[in-house]
Amino acid sequence: IEAIGYEVQTLRLATPPFMDLLGDPDPKSLLDFATTLETYTLRHGIGYTSIGPVMATTPRSLLSPIYALPDLIAATETVFTSVLVASTETGINLAAIEATAQTIHKIGQMTPNGFGNLRFAMLANVLPRGPFFPGAYHDSSSPTFGIATEAADLAVSALQNARSLDQAQENLINALNHHAAKLLEAVEFLVDEHNLQFSGIDFSLSPALENQGSIGAAMEHLGLDAFGGHGTLFATAFLTTCIQQANIPRTGYSSVLLPVLEDNTLAQRATEDCYTVNDLLLYSAVCGTGLDTVPIPGDTTPEQIAALLLDVATLSSSLNKPLTARLLPVPGLEAGDMTQFDFEFFTNSKVLPLKMQSASKIFKQVYFSNLYPGK
């Protein structure tokens, strides 16, 4: 891939869900597994590793391993994990959502600036073989590889040079098809040379920190006064439709990604109060990932987090689409404070408030729900 002119930012490894490998591990065994794997992968040039989610999509799912995850995150630096709480086929596991919310809260307290939550997320209807972290996991013994792109710059170029929506759409689809064809040439060599299965390309419009790589900037080139204003839902759906119309062997989200702390325009518009967490949830109805790298107040309660996670899982199940929630409670910061992360793939922004009200009475009444039987 580098030989044909592309930068490979990171190599990443995703295993099957760790309970498929270890059964029901005690906390020490799980920690030993994660730290040993981290040492081995770093030694071999793999920058990040996902050990997959706790699979909690049935009423009888074992939830105890979820409570061991804060210690795992605190003891590692490159290991990702998650909890899959919803499946359209079975329903939404509210008990797992509660445990996940408690885990997010505890990781926020245990790691500097709550940064450990970068490597933990709630998943809903996320399938295996997608390359984007933290939701990546494998599902078989056969080695498989996929490609995730940081392609928001293609949208910026396509939209800033377009004189109409039709031309913008044509420009972006042509750019996606062109780069997909080039990448597939390299893929064919890898498949033949190493006898690997290829899962596809997640050609999501993932942002980079420079403005030329900002998905928020791309939407503003499309005609928005500012990302987050009325019309943002249309702009998000427009870009998602372009990806869906491109001729690409897809895997993962294959959509628009809106990580607050990984996009300069999104981060800036948050400081200007252009959008809320609920707005991001609305946009996730027509794009990928859900709520990603969203900084929230350090004193947010597990009950507040659980209520928000329940809404993400419900939207995912209603639309039968993969969504995730990666929330970062920042200790000591209140809504409106600026974050102070020092991480090469982050910019800083304003802490976004959550609604004070929770849904604790719902969680007390039911631990598993299938809102859409037979869907």
CATH class equals: Alpha Beta
On the 0-100 scale, what is the average pLDDT? 96
**What can be said about the biggest beta sheet?**
8 strands, mixed
Report the CATH architecture: Alpha-Beta Barrel
Rg of Cα set: 20 Å
The count of DSSP E runs of length 2 or more, i.e. the number of strands, is 10
Share of helix among residues? 25-40%
Distance between the termini: 40 Å
Q: How much strand?
A: 15-25%
Structural class: alpha/beta
* Molecular shape: globular
Unreliable runs: none
CATH fold group: Anaerobic Ribonucleotide-triphosphate Reductase Large Chain
The ordered string of helix (H) and strand (E) elements is: EHHEHEEHEEHHEHHHHEHEHE
**Assembly status:** single chain
How many distinct domains? 1
**Helical element count?**
12
List keywords for this structure.
single chain, 375 residues, alpha/beta, Anaerobic Ribonucleotide-triphosphate Reductase Large Chain, eight-stranded mixed sheet, two-stranded parallel ribbon, 39% helix, globular
Structural commentary:
The protein is an alpha/beta fold and 375 residues long. It has one domain (2-369): Anaerobic Ribonucleotide-triphosphate Reductase Large Chain. The protein has helices spanning 18-22, 27-43, 69-75, 94-110, 152-160, 165-194, 215-222, 232-245, 264-271, 277-283, 302-319, 360-365, and strands at 12-14, 48-55, 79-87, 91-93, 120-124, 144-148, 197-202, 290-297, 323-330, 368-369. Strands 1, 2, 3, 4, 5, 8, 9 and 10 form an eight-stranded mixed β-sheet that branches. The chain has a two-stranded parallel sheet with strand order 6-7. The longest helix has 30 residues, at 165-194. The mean pLDDT is 96.
